[in-house]
């Protein structure tokens, strides 16, 4: 949800020169209750549509042997044959229900910190574009830390549910079974496996995503004949298509660069066969190199590429729809 809110801000800032005033729906113009309710419904639906790709990606990153070298579609078919439809939706219930308060936390922390930074930066001689960039950067960092504190344990729980049934992986009696086993073995800190690497990589990954998104959107608008001096307003359909296309390109670029980090993080969060001692980033990296060499860092790349590309497209379109449906009555 934090990423979605940042999408709106980036979209509004980048299209300002295109005279798209009707696209600039500020936080103050939104009915907050309606916004959160509609957002919960639509983003849960979006999450459900993309969840199978996350399951396939996670299994490919964690599995040893033949499964890791199969294509994403082959792994998907194998899961369907062995577990049916429920198999590709493992962990979805926990993820969908658990993510609701996290989305509210992420959105609130982002908006509040953004407004505070905008007000504080008024005392400095800065251009409007610089103030917006600074506010969004600070807001993204604050939101990342706040939401990460909530979402990392949820990630650990959901990913363990996704990979149960694989050779060497334990089985659990639902999400509370995961919590019980992890806490008994490692304490609360076990639920925060991968927190450090998530925090260290999430901010630059987000910057990469938005950089690619902004560049792609700018290039597309230029190719369509819209510029800073253009008096013609793009239609709503053009706006949606351009934003969706830019989101797809950004997701694709980001997935290429961030997949190795995601592979290490996923294995760190779900695997226990390290012998003695607590799992660490270095142990996880060495184990992955021993198993599959450097190509092992791109396990699950196909499903993740598809997931992030579709996520970028659907997130932009969904968020813009949520905003329009949530505008306060005049």
From TrEMBL:
One of its GO terms (cellular component) is membrane. It is a multi-pass membrane protein. It holds the Pfam family Mito_carr. It comes from the Eukaryota. One of its GO terms (biological process) is transmembrane transport. InterPro entries: MCP, MCP_dom_sf, MCP_transmembrane. Solcar repeats lie at residues 35-116, 131-219, 238-325. It is found in: Membrane. Keywords: Membrane, Repeat, Transmembrane, Transport. Belongs to the mitochondrial carrier (TC 2.A.29) family. This is Mitochondrial carrier protein.
């Amino acid at each position: 949800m934090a990423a979605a809110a940042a999408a709106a801000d980036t979209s509004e800032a980048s299209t300002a020169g295109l005279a798209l005033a009707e696209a600039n729906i500020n936080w103050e113009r939104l009915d907050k209750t309606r916004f959160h309710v509609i957002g919960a419904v639509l983003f849960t639906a979006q999450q459900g549509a993309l969840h199978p790709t996350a399951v396939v990606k996670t299994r490919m990153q964690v599995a040893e042997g033949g499964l890791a070298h199969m294509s994403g579609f082959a792994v998907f078919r194998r899961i369907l044959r062995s577990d049916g439809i429920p198999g590709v939706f493992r962990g979805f219930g926990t993820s969908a229900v658990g993510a609701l308060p996290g989305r509210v936390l992420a959105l609130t922390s982002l908006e509040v910190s953004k407004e505070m930074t905008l007000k504080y930066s008024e005392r400095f001689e800065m251009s409007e574009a610089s103030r917006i960039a600074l506010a969004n950067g600070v807001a993204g960092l604050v939101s990342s830390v706040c939401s990460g504190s909530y979402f990392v344990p949820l990630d650990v729980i959901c990913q363990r549910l996704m990979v149960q049934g694989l050779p060497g992986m334990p089985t659990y009696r639902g999400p509370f079974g995961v919590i019980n086993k992890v806490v008994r073995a490692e304490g609360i800190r076990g639920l925060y496996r991968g927190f450090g690497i998530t925090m260290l990589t999430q901010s630059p990954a987000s910057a990469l995503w938005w950089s690619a998104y902004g560049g792609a959107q700018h290039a597309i608008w230029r190719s369509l004949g819209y510029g800073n001096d253009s008096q013609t307003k793009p239609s709503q359909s053009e706006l949606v298509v351009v934003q969706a296309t830019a989101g797809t390109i950004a997701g694709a670029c980001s997935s290429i660069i961030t997949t190795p980090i995601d592979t290490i993080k996923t294995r760190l969060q779900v695997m226990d066969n390290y012998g003695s001692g607590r799992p660490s980033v270095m142990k996880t990296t060495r184990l992955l190199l021993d198993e599959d060499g450097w190509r092992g860092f791109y396990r699950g790349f196909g499903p993740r590429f598809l997931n992030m590309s579709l996520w970028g497209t659907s997130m932009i379109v969904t968020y813009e729809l949520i905003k329009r449906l949530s505008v306060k009555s005049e």
